[in-house]
Write a structure and sequence with these properties.
Blueprint lengths: L1 E3 L5 H12 L5 E3 L7 H5 L9 E3 L5 E3 L1 H11 L11 H30 L7 H22 L13 H16 L10 H11 L2 H4 L5
Parallel strand pairs: 1-2
Antiparallel strand pairs: 1-3, 3-4
Helix pairs in contact: 1-3, 1-6, 4-5, 4-6, 5-7, 6-7
């Protein structure tokens, strides 16, 4: 399999880390949707990161859909989604919050970095920041009191996505999400970033 995309994308990074934890052999092509647009388009005309090219040549896009596929082909004892329905629902809830935080972080960065200052709309930025903080407040509450990983002795997808999201937002919007406000997420991030799977897929 081939994973296409840069690790500075939280969506690419969560897939790269999951591939390692699932022990699935793959190659990584760190193509940028900006700098390498034409080369990326030759693989996936939509130019969406991450893109996964399966062993059979199928082109998959969207990190959540890619991860669903990977969990289906991985050894059962390595799968990253809990079997218990209550745990599954909780995991999906928290993953949704982490992905929302990623989305809102990207929107703020794009608005500030790609749109001319005179065309930026502060009321819209304020609303997006409010959504971002709401997502992280709820995610912090979900991890408050957690000793280690959320469900088991090993890291699961909810832990991967929450840690990746937090590290990404802290890297691009550190003043918006102060560490003092989110101690549980800081602890999760430190633990996750020290693992071999995270170290092998560093935030670029």
């Amino acid at each position: 399999m081939r994973l296409i995309g840069m690790l500075d994308s939280p969506y690419v990074r969560r897939v790269a880390i999951s591939l390692r934890l699932l022990d699935l052999r793959h190659e990584h092509a760190p193509l940028s949707v900006f700098r390498d647009f034409e080369q990326f388009a030759s693989i996936n005309a939509v130019v969406k990161a991450p893109t996964l090219v399966t062993d059979g040549g199928a082109v998959l896009l969207d990190s959540t859909l890619i991860l669903e596929f990977l969990d289906r082909i991985a050894p059962r004892d390595l799968r990253l989604v809990p079997d218990d329905i209550d745990s599954f629902v909780l995991a999906q809830h928290l993953i949704g919050l982490a992905l929302a935080a990623c989305e809102k972080s990207v929107q703020i960065v794009y608005e500030k970095n790609l749109r001319p200052a005179e065309k930026q709309h502060q009321p819209w930025l304020d609303r997006v920041e409010r959504q971002l903080l709401a997502a992280y407040d709820l995610l912090e509450a979900g991890y408050a009191g957690a000793d280690g990983w959320l469900f088991e002795e090993r890291m699961m997808q909810v832990d991967i996505t929450a840690a990746v999201a937090w590290r990404f937002t802290r890297s691009v919007l550190p003043e918006t999400v102060p560490e003092a406000r989110y101690p549980a997420l800081c602890a999760l991030s430190r633990r996750a970033e020290a693992t071999p799977a995270f170290l092998a897929a560093p935030l670029d």
